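>> received
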Amino acid sequence: MGCRIHCREGGAPAVGAVNPRAILAAHCNTIEETYEFMLAYAAQGREDEGGSIRQFLERAAAALEGLSRAATSSQPPRDTTSSEAFAAFLEILDDDARKARAALQLVLAQKSISSQLVDNLNASIHLRALLTDIFLIDEALKRRDG
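>> returned
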């Protein structure tokens, strides 16, 4: 996706980098990194919870909660037609983020997170739709800015 930003220790955006696009990028990066971790975790064949899976999922759930707000603040297009299209897509992004977050919360509510559970989460159409949404909005904003 290419929306990486420089962060200070602890994961917060560095001073000077805090702008609406950087905040959106931070949310997207957290979600992408979690998905990459989930793919590796699912391949491990764990029956019981291990690694940092719970922490990754918790960070992703938090990023999903603020994703729509961050996208809304990231400088919508200037002309009316583009503004209307942007607003319509933000409704889809918000809906997909809400559904993906519900799936993450279901997994987090389990006593133990197995590889099979994460593999099923990886296959969720809601999570895949969300990933496609963030790739699409990132690319659209790059083209608009470029």
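>> The CA atoms of residues 49 and 113 lie 5 Å apart.
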